[in-house]
Amino acid sequence: MAITLPPGLTPSTPPDTTAQDGTAQNGLTVSRGAGRIMRTAVAAALAVWFVLPLVPLGLWVFADRWSYPVAMPQEWGFQNVGTALAQGAVPAFSRSLGLGLLVSAIATPLGVLAARSLAFHPSRWSTLVSALLFAPLALPAFVAVFGLNVLLVRLQIPAYAGVVLVLTAYALPYTVYVMRLAYAAHDIGFEEEACTLGATPGQVFFRVQLPLIAPALARAAFLAFLVGWSDYLVTLLIGGGSVVTTPLLVAAAASGTGNDGIVAVLSVAALAPPLGLLLALGLTGRRRGGRS
Prior knowledge:
Order of helices and strands: EEHHEEHHHHHHHHHH
CATH superfamily: MetI-like
CATH architecture: Orthogonal Bundle
Largest sheet: 2 strands, antiparallel
Strand content: under 5%
């Protein structure tokens, strides 16, 4: 059936713009292009804001002599690297790495269990349990660590085990929080359906639950690793000076004068693992997002 329009009226068409390559663009395409440009500009600005303070560190690593007010080092070399290695940078790096991995390996599954219990099996004690789990973030760290140090010494717990125990307690709130957010958006119906189809508990966990919570699990493990890797106060007080990690070496070098190059080398070493893990998480997240 034909539709006759009154004289002077013509069907309206959306305004089109033609790009330089001859392709037609409507307002929505232009808006998306502007949004993409804005996001790229903001990301570039944030990257510059983050990287710019690290430039002096990178220069100090290879600066054998850099005197004020000269803008660039007068002499280049690896003297600072050699001095840092002589002061025990490699053993301290290994202890920090082992401490971070161990704290992450303990705190992450504990956070998963606690978060799942609070999310799917609430009880009248859930509020109290949540308060106890998040208490390490509310208590003054200095006072709490001093009190725990006395208790651990009386119990004759080894220094390294005490450091791991206390850092795990401090990492637990982060893992519980991340995993509780994940379980809040988790549909347990997938697991129930798998059980209905005859899957064993192990199959349900590894083939249904684990793939769904994997991104949150990676974030929780990363935060727990950061707690163990970057800690200074707990390692110093509970370890009693016997557990020398990279943050302790950085603080010791920074407390003196004329150690700018050594501090830079140790600081770069302290930044490398977290940045590497963060980059790996970002790349993994983009790859998963591209497949979905």
